Amino acid sequence: MYTDPLHGTDPAVTTTPQNITAQQREALDSALRVDQAGEVAANWIYKGQLFVLGRDKRAGPLIQEMWDQEKKHLLVMDKLQLQHRIRPTVLSEVAKVAGFGLGAVTALMGKEAAMACTEAVETVIGEHYDDQLKEMESLPHDHPSVPLLKDVVREFRDDELEHLDTAVENFSQRAPAHALLSSMVGVGCKIAIELCKRF
Ligand SMILES: [Fe+2]
Ligand SMILES: [Fe+2]
């Protein structure tokens, strides 16, 4: 609905629930702020990977395909941010640089390391979206934006988990120092999530 101009004025995509507690509002606020930041970072990670591996016949198109999905994710998150009047993170420039750096550096380590980076990031993000989906159960479902928001989060979670599968199918686990690399990237993502929730 967010990408279909036919639904451009539908209350589900233009209004935010008024009958929610301050605590629920705050939870929604930080959830959408971190999601938007995450999709910004994801776009820059793939951009960084493609910068290095763009000419690789096998990895290039795969990365491009995942990036295209991240572009859609970000477009929808930008709309959600405006709809629910969320303050964007002040760290978005940091997220871009960190994302690009992470993507480029892992790609320089090789195709498998780039895939290991994707595997680690998408593991954390898939879980993150899944947790959010459970949290959103407590929101009042009589407002049309709420079921739609849950559909979006569910769809994105599934996309991220598909990226995870793509990475594993493309030998992420053959990356040098795979365990160390994944735990470093995973911890980095978790710290970034906590920072973007708050700032
Ligand atoms: Fe995404
Ligand atoms: Fe992703």
UniProtKB/TrEMBL annotation:
<dbReference type="InterPro" id="IPR011566">
    <property type="entry name" value="Ubq_synth_Coq7"/>
</dbReference>
<keyword id="KW-0472">Membrane</keyword>
<dbReference type="InterPro" id="IPR009078">
    <property type="entry name" value="Ferritin-like_SF"/>
</dbReference>
<comment type="pathway">
    <text>Cofactor biosynthesis; ubiquinone biosynthesis.</text>
</comment>
<feature type="binding site">
    <location>
        <position position="160"/>
    </location>
    <ligand>
        <name>Fe cation 1</name>
    </ligand>
</feature>
<dbReference type="GO" id="GO:0046872">
    <property type="term" value="F:metal ion binding"/>
</dbReference>
<feature type="binding site">
    <location>
        <position position="39"/>
    </location>
    <ligand>
        <name>Fe cation 1</name>
    </ligand>
</feature>
<comment type="function">
    <text>Catalyzes the hydroxylation of 2-polyprenyl-3-methyl-6-methoxy-1,4-benzoquinol (DMQH2) during ubiquinone biosynthesis. Has also a structural role in the COQ enzyme complex, stabilizing other COQ polypeptides.</text>
</comment>
<feature type="binding site">
    <location>
        <position position="73"/>
    </location>
    <ligand>
        <name>Fe cation 1</name>
    </ligand>
</feature>
<dbReference type="GO" id="GO:0016709">
    <property type="term" value="F:oxidoreductase activity, acting on paired donors, with incorporation or reduction of molecular oxygen, NAD(P)H as one donor, and incorporation of one atom of oxygen"/>
</dbReference>
<feature type="binding site">
    <location>
        <position position="163"/>
    </location>
    <ligand>
        <name>Fe cation 2</name>
    </ligand>
</feature>
<dbReference type="GO" id="GO:0006744">
    <property type="term" value="P:ubiquinone biosynthetic process"/>
</dbReference>
<dbReference type="GO" id="GO:0031314">
    <property type="term" value="C:extrinsic component of mitochondrial inner membrane"/>
</dbReference>
<protein>
    <recommendedName>
        <fullName>5-demethoxyubiquinone hydroxylase, mitochondrial</fullName>
        <ecNumber>1.14.99.60</ecNumber>
    </recommendedName>
</protein>
<keyword id="KW-0560">Oxidoreductase</keyword>
<feature type="binding site">
    <location>
        <position position="70"/>
    </location>
    <ligand>
        <name>Fe cation 2</name>
    </ligand>
</feature>
<feature type="binding site">
    <location>
        <position position="70"/>
    </location>
    <ligand>
        <name>Fe cation 1</name>
    </ligand>
</feature>
<keyword id="KW-0830">Ubiquinone</keyword>
<keyword id="KW-0479">Metal-binding</keyword>
<keyword id="KW-0999">Mitochondrion inner membrane</keyword>
<keyword id="KW-0408">Iron</keyword>
<keyword id="KW-0503">Monooxygenase</keyword>
<comment type="subunit">
    <text>Component of a multi-subunit COQ enzyme complex, composed of at least COQ3, COQ4, COQ5, COQ6, COQ7 and COQ9.</text>
</comment>
<feature type="binding site">
    <location>
        <position position="160"/>
    </location>
    <ligand>
        <name>Fe cation 2</name>
    </ligand>
</feature>
<feature type="binding site">
    <location>
        <position position="122"/>
    </location>
    <ligand>
        <name>Fe cation 2</name>
    </ligand>
</feature>
<dbReference type="GO" id="GO:0008682">
    <property type="term" value="F:3-demethoxyubiquinol 3-hydroxylase activity"/>
</dbReference>
<keyword id="KW-0831">Ubiquinone biosynthesis</keyword>
<dbReference type="Pfam" id="PF03232">
    <property type="entry name" value="COQ7"/>
</dbReference>
<keyword id="KW-0496">Mitochondrion</keyword>
<comment type="similarity">
    <text>Belongs to the COQ7 family.</text>
</comment>
